[in-house]
Amino acid sequence: MVDDSIWKVCVANKHDRSDSHFTLARSVETDMTKHYWMQEEHHAFREAVARLFREEFEPNRQRYTEAGVVDREFWSKAAEIGVLGASVPETHGGLGLSRHFDVVTYLQQALVGDTGWGFAVHNIATHYVAAYGTEFQKARWLPQLANGDLIAAIAMSEPAAGSDLKGVKTRAVADGETWVINGTKTFITNGGSADLLLLVAKTDPAKGSRGVSLMMVETCDLEGYQVGRKLDKLGMRRNDTAELFFEDVRIPASSLLGGEVGQGFYQLMGQLPWERLIIGYTALGSAQCALELTLDYVKQRKAFGQRIFDFQNTRFKLAEANTKIELLSAFLDQCLEELESGQLTAERAAMAKWWSTEAQCDIIDECLQLHGGYGYMSEYRISELYADARVQKIYGGTNEIMKEVIARSMDDPKKS
Ligand SMILES: Cc1cc2nc3c(=O)[nH]c(=O)nc-3n(C[C@H](O)[C@H](O)[C@H](O)COP(=O)(O)OP(=O)(O)OC[C@H]3O[C@@H](n4cnc5c(N)ncnc54)[C@H](O)[C@@H]3O)c2cc1C
Fold first, then answer.
1. Which end of the chain is more exposed for a tag (fewer CB within 10 A), N or C?
2. Phi then psi dihedrals of residue 223, to 5 deg
């Protein structure tokens, strides 16, 4: 059982901060001191999440990697300390905290060298329900998403439609009190484990972006629904990425997210900045993890009678990585504040996504290089970070699409 008492006390006392309490919380802190928004309750939460990874994840890391998925029990343990429900409203079974607490989890997960556990898509899907769900939908799904009874996935991409979401072919047709779904999805993270899907479907193909809707699909005992093969990937080997098939699948009318047809694109545009910021923070944590691993390595390894650390090239590479991490951290924190105050624009979220993931891949590549041949060996964690990083430039909107979003905002007649 994970002891979550420290951070719960801190959260309860968040308006009653004493210096001694603050010092105590900071004494367990190492990697997150530079985030100016981190207060004692975030540090305490971070310690609880760190303990979760240390006690429940690390001993099982190899097994999860081989299984290609994290145990259901790990999800339950994460739920127990409030990870799954941190930013879910209290009225719906969560802790009602800001997304800063979710960010603490993302950073902590990345700092232990994991980006595989599929918490991100679960958390993103949860925010869709919280933002757009009807009262019935929130009451039905949020408590179970927060307590880990339901694992969520996001089913947008299709074999012939990834970047170009308007090309989605999956159809949802109204028939009495049901929607009938037909189509195929691919690359779906948590696809094999998901109990609840956030599905992108066309409700009226003639209406372009206004003809797209989001459906919440409960997968248990769902006739006509089939999970295809678990896709074999270069990295991210601790989550299941799957194909999903829908053949005349009937779901209740109440599955339409928000209850209003044709709102899918508007809903997607509202939540994509959060998804892109999550990718950014994951990039930051992974780059920090790589730097820590590399510092340890180059201070021990010797060549030509001196530490690898002492070569000027090494010192410059590490200095560059450290600087990039600082800059990235500051920009992401600024974007997070904008998100929380409802001001984060699509283009700034896109900047965060593309630049952070490029920085992550560059830093990890340099760090691997400094490990020499050992960096290419699976037993050295830097090699896993390298393989995991690559997809960050692809999902959540490819980096090319991010640059399109940014460039489009620079050609807005209203701004000239
Ligand atoms: C490990 C993994 C997990 C994923 N998880 C999910 C998930 O949970 N849910 C989900 O729905 N999807 C998921 N995806 C899918 C992912 O979002 C898509 O792969 C991504 O959006 C790109 O789509 P695509 O693969 O069809 O590439 P394409 O759209 O075919 O793009 C191919 C190339 O063309 C470029 N390109 C396309 N259009 C343009 C343009 N207009 N201008 C310039 N260049 C362009 C792209 O940048 C890319 O380099 C996942 C993918 C992976 C690999």
1. C
2. -70, 135
Asked if 290 and 322 count as a contact pair (C-beta separation under 8 A), the reply is no
342 & 404 share domain: yes
> What is the Å distance from ligand 1's center to 394 Cα?
6
Looking at residue 256, the DSSP 8-state letter turns out to be B
Which amino acid makes up residue 218? E
pLDDT digits (tens, 9 = 90+) for 350-409: 999 999 999 999 999 999 999 999 999 999 999 999 999 999 999 999 999 999 999 999
129 and 54 within one domain? yes
Cα distances (Å, whole numbers) of residue 5 to 44, 68, 191, 337: 9, 32, 33, 28
- Nearest in space to 50 (alpha carbons), one of 111, 94, 9, 132: 111
CA of 163 to the centre of ligand 1 (A): 5
Encoded tokens for 50: 């760190």
Backbone angles phi, psi at 228, to 5 degrees: -85, -155
Domain boundary among 112, 146, 180: 146
Q: How many domains does the chain have?
A: 3
Higher pLDDT, 218 or 16: 218
Which residue's C-alpha comes closest to atom 25 of ligand 1? 162
Catalytic residue chosen out of the listed positions 41, 47, 158, 275: 275
Q: What is the CATH classification number for the domain harbouring 230?
A: 2.40.110.10
Residue 40 falls in the annotated catalytic set: no
Percent of the chain with pLDDT over 90: 89
Residue 382 belongs to what H/E stretch?
Answer: helix 381-389
**Over the stretch 359-374, which tens digit does the pLDDT of each residue have?**
999 999 999 999 999 9
What's the domain range around 158? 152-262
Domain end residue (candidates: 98, 123, 146): 146
pTM: 0.93
- Find the 245 Cα to ligand 1 centroid distance in Å: 19
With a 6 Å cutoff on the Cβ, whether 116 touches ligand 1 is no
Number of alpha carbons in the 13 Å side-chain half-sphere of residue 269: 12
DSSP 45-78: HHHHHHHHIIIIIGGGHHHHHHHTS--HHHHHHH
Q: Which atom of ligand 1 is nearest to the CA of 398?
A: 47
282 with 219, same domain?
no
Question: What is the DSSP track for 94-141?
Answer: S----THHHHHHHHHHHHTT---STHHHHHHHHHHHHHH--HHHHHHH
Three-state SS for 4?
coil
